[in-house]
Amino acid sequence: MAGNEHVDMSASGADRTAERLAAVPGIRRAPTPKLEQFMLPGFLDGETCAALIAQIDRDVRPSTIADPNGDEAFRTSTTCDLDHRDPLVIAVNDRLHGLTGIPREYGEPMQGQRYDVGQEFKAHTDYFDPHGADWETYCAVPGQRSWTLMIYLNEPGAGGATRFLATGKMHQPEVGKLLAWNNVRADGTANPDTLHHGMKVRQGRKYIITKWFRERPWPWAEGELG
């Protein structure tokens, strides 16, 4: 597993994503040396968010985790594998790739998540454990995750914040707000300071979409990227 420890950020251009994001008007960079993280309010408009929520509601399934830890309540949300051939999904996906400067072949298909009252995703990282039992299943072809981009689609009545444990920062859901972070440290190893908790929704529902990027191309079927 030694070869899995260091992430190649240069092939996809993910090593230059922080510089690109820092130049975006209105974006805010987290004032911490522990991780590269950015927040951009109003990235998506309300109409686009509402259309994505409708897609999520139509196609949700129970959320899963890699390397199960025995805690059945660790992740209790539902997930939607968004239709990557849908024009709206294509448009949002292209904007995210344009924002990061990472070519489309290095991106996973976008997912949507829905959290009902009492549902959460306990403290976790988005990168995969290089020594985990499921490494070969999820990473043999595309390699490790580099950047995560997450967009809040609505504002639940109460709860549903995303808390980063290393900084103590609580990101509150706002319609269309984008949160981006690098899962990899400067030395090329996965960054445990990206540990974050999707906190319980106390009132209403919470919707987000998530886009993950990989160090090598995703195994898209021929012609799927146009």
TrEMBL record:
Start and end residues of each Fe2OG dioxygenase domain: 106-215
EC category: oxidoreductase
GO-annotated molecular function: iron ion binding; L-ascorbic acid binding; procollagen-proline 4-dioxygenase activity
Keywords, sorted A to Z: Dioxygenase, Iron, Metal-binding, Oxidoreductase, Vitamin C
Keyword Oxidoreductase: yes
Coiled coil: none
Cofactor(s) needed by this chain: L-ascorbate
Pfam families listed in its UniProt record: 2OG-FeII_Oxy_3
Catalytic activity, EC: 1.14.11.2
Protein name, as recorded: Prolyl 4-hydroxylase
Species of the source: Sphingopyxis italica
